[in-house]
Amino acid sequence: MTSLGRTLRKLLRRRRLHAEMEAELAHHRELSRENGNPIGLGNVTAAKESTLDLWRFTLLENAWRDIRHAFRSLRRRPAYTITAVGSLALGIGVCTAMFTVLNAVALRPLPYANPQQLVWVTQVLKANNTDEITFTPDFLDWRAGNRTFQSMAAYNENTRSLTGIAEPIEVHTVKASAALLPLLGISPLLGRNLPQNADFAGHEHVALLSHAIWRSRFGADRSIVGKPILLDGEQYIVTGVLPGRFLFPGVEQVDIITGLGKNEAGELARDGKVFTAVRNVIGRLQPGITNEQARQDLMVIQAHLPLPPWMPTITIKVLSLRDHLFGNAKITGVVLVAGSLLFLLIASSNVGSLSLVRLMQRDRELAIRRVLGAARARVISQLLIESSLLAVFAAALGLFLAMGIRSLLIAFGPYRLSIYGNLPIDMRVVAFASVLLVLTILVFGMLPALRMSDFHLGEAIAAGQMSIAGKRHNLRLLSIVGAAEIAIVIALSSSAALMLESFWNMRYKELGFESQHAIAATINLGSSRYGDKNREFAFINQLLERAAAIPGVEAVTPTVASEIPPGEGHNTNNARIEGRPLPTNSRLKAIHQAQEVSGAYFKILRIPLLEGRLLRDSDTANNLPVVVVNSQFAKRYFPGESALGHRLQTGERENAWYTIVGVVGDVKTSGLTAPPQPVVYTPYEQSDGGRLRDLGVIIRSALPVGSIAPEFRKIVHDLDPEQPVASIATIDQRLNASVSRPRFTADILFVFSCFGVLLAIIGVYGVVTCRTRAQMREIAVRQALGAQRTAIISNILGQAIRLVVPGLLAGIALAFLGNRLISGLLFEVKPGDPAALVVVCAGIVLAALAASFVPALRASRLDPLVSLRQD
Amino acid sequence: MGKSQNLLQGTLDLLILHALQHETMHGYAIAQTIHLLSDEVLTVEEGSLYPALSRLELDACISSSWGLSENNRRAKYYKITARGKKILAGQQESWKRLSAAVQQVLAR
Q1: What range defines the domain where residue A826 resides?
Q2: Could you report the predicted ipTM of this complex, rounded to two decimals?
């Protein structure tokens, strides 16, 4: 150890030691000369070198020399270097980016105090269907009687209008127990948490502002605490402002938290007069208590509680908060990381075979160095240093790439991957990337280096065998790697092709309408001011009139916001058709979706009229009630006859008979993946209006949404300064948003498979080049014997095909397996769809042949004399 | 670092330590001393001398310091250490045994 210490010390003073040695030797020689002494004058350099050797400098100096040498030799072959660094960087980048996802959802601690104690609790109610919701009185009894929780809090999320500020907006709010924030270990930046009595009805008009809304809507006014704000027209007193780093433990970030305000005495009386539910219960367990113990504890309490009148069976679910928030995303993260690791492995072995090719091109240089006495260890270490240098460049580039991919994931990822709002790059991510770096060096650096080591170069030269990796079994191994790559890439690409086809069908096929130039706005007229039908219609009519007058607007129609294509959840109505007995079986009733629109609706969305007429502006409350139905409705309830002229009763106005005056084409309004349902379109002025409080307005205009939106908002503001516009977007944007998940999956698969194809091409190129190289002598002899260039090219291409075909067959088998796995995700695409597979296979075979054409051409251009003379 | 199994190398180390036994001297002086003490039979080349000195120094048998030589030039002076003296004693012992044994073989 001490001698190591001395060596290190001397290493640090290396330059001085060199100088001292020079001085000492000079002194010696001087004295020798002066004394005319025969002593000395041995080999001075050797003396120096062997002394330096003693100090262990050689090893490090060699390393430094090797690094410089490696750098030079990489620069001499830019094509190889760029390909290798590029594919490794891509591999490392993708892996690291995927890891940031996994890290955010599964590894990073939640940003609360002792997050491992936090759980999410719910009742699971089973009657006709299953519902995860907790009865308020039961929650109160749990909270009072449990022995396993430090504290429990409940909250419900809802959307409210924030008014009384410059511009009214829709805000995401939460009604929460006062205990929620203390339970999470969060204290406000300004002011105080909600007071305890805010849990009780009548005292809930207190609010905590999120840092974001405090800054954006209240100008970061520090004196806001104690002042009132207006939510849905009611006054709330601001008690505090939340810190900027606070993240609400839910899917959506929360703008304002208000008191829970439950009538606890009334709930606990359980007499049916007051009976509410809470959607979310969060608890902090006592130290050392498991989720199961907590569940048992609550079940004991639950067993003594009365059931509600419809007698559901009640069980209790206790999930750790992390699993509640990220359950699915965790699996996605693991799958993504595993998939990308596979890619990195392929990329590394690929670059390994590429560098083997390079090695063969340099075999003469290496052989000469070996013959000149370079130790085998030195040659191998030099190769390893080259690999490491490549890998380090690749890792650095890969990290940049990872940051790019990461911001794409944040921007386009439809999954709420993280409550952090972003995917942080922390020590864990950096450590992961470093491990990748080491793995990469091991996989692709060791491959050629090891091949070197089991081969005796001197003998190889003596035998005239001018290749290092020319052994048969090495070539076979290479070919297997190449074929395996092709197989994996075919499986992957065919999955990606199916996903893309599926996405395409979903998004563009048989929509039943045209989405161009259509803009949809939604307004929630929920507040009490529009409870009266006359006020509601007055608002709607004025809005329509003024919106139609915006320059560039061609047509305007009202509709129910939830029915705007592609639609969300639907309420269905039952219709009674005139002249038919009232069916008792609900399956036989004319179930349909109801839409309240104007005639312009069909023109704006270019929905075709099949029979009869469209709705007209004259179809008002004072005229004959009429409806238009879609072709589904006509087919299902009037098979074999025309629906026109029939009358039906629908909706809440049970007494009015509506005459069917037209049949229009089917439109996808139950989401893009569901088949069209029967629909009845009522003129909005003949409806009773209630559903239009969830108001949607569709505007046709060739102008971009950006120039319509401010005008539209201004109109709404002029009509009612307290009324916010919930959303305004083109129909295309709404359609894109509705398919963002399948699209994201398809995109990721597509990018992966492009990357895979690229790798496979590089792989085939590497393998074929290796083989050609090994057969150089044979080729030269054949050329000397008069073989044509074309014959040589086709011979090599033939070899490439022998490599590709087994890969192709294995790939097709694998593709069928893989496509079965994703069949659940596909829409109107059969997993065995031959078209996609044929396209993919043909593309990959062509690409592989193109890749092998390069070495084939090169081989055919060799001068046989030169190749033969090399021996 | 006990790798001086090699007879000649071991011998050189022994001779250097012996030369340094009573006084501190620089490299050239060590070579001279050995040369003179052997009645000019043994010649130590710098190619062997300096590596041996470095080795002995790394082995902590000798220590070195820079000083002025008799004719006012900077020179590196070597000095035997306690460890060096111990090793010298041991090596002298085994050398005696060895040379006696060789002598005996040759005498017969």
Answers
A1: 328-507+740-869
A2: 0.75
